Amino acid sequence: MQFPTMAKPPVGIVLDTDMSRPDDVLALALLYGLDGKNEARVVAVSVSKPNLKAAALAEVIGRFYAGAVSGAFGAVSRTLPVGLALRTPMDEDTAMLAQTLARPEYQHGIHQLNDTAEPVPLLRNALTAQHDQNAIVLLNGPATTLAKMLVLPGIKQLIQAKVRYLVVSGGNFQTGEPDSHIRADIPAAQKLFQDWPTDIVVSGEELGSQILFPASSIEKDFAWSQAHPVADAYRAYRPMPYDAPTHNMVAALYAVRPAQNYFKTSERGWMVVDNQGRIKFTPSPEGKHRYLILDPAQKENVLRALIELASAKPVPRQPRFPRQQQQQPQQQQQQQQRPQPQPLPDKKAN
User: Which helix (H) or strand (E) holds 42?
Assistant: First the structure.
């Protein structure tokens, strides 16, 4: 619940991800790195890959940054319920998921479907709780859940009130070919670009393919913890060493730091997804859609920021109401200084 006297917090990130490849876990780590710097708050995480271990890995990473294994303290509120898309049969476990979760250090509470949240209400409720124009939605996977959310009554008005913009990791504006995120649910992507009421910024596949996350960083910059779920997931995905594309990471970086000019942006226009999953862009001054363009002069700065934020140690969350907490010791001291009532003298019977 919000009150008028509450200070406006950092922007809230509502993330829908499929947790299927290394840059998914790296992007989530990056967002928690920005959370630790008080530049953003991770307020909702939903997994579009219908797999319990995918949701469990998202929870493990949240617990890691809340202090479990990593040793950070005071950040319990970062552990969030994880939404999970439902589809039967569920996707099979992958090595990245199964091998990472096999480590006994990584405890989680997701063992059956009832341990997860329904993704559409989860994301809607997260938006409802945000201050106006203080939320950013980040899509690092198929558009299935967001498309389902768009059919809720009054949801477009809610999105317009709460969301600054939507950032989508998908498409390819260099070759025009569809990427795996769009192909996974073409009708959902078509609905998303047609009906989403705020600005949309798209990070195409060609961008993350030109900026690779170095395997050497996994071995060096994440070594401060002997059990690091992000590093373990990276190693389990395929034999090391390999440098992973940063599709989802660059989308997350732009989402929170658009003013840093890490990337150039296209002119405004409209995007339409065809029946093969290709994104068609038509320039228009009235358009609400843009896509990111690599700036060669910023490439090293981008990679440096990705490494720094993704490998950052967890930071204890500062109290949301510091003034109240500061007043409590003063109040206790005042109570201690108040004169204590003196006991009444015993009355002796005559």
Answer: strand 40-47
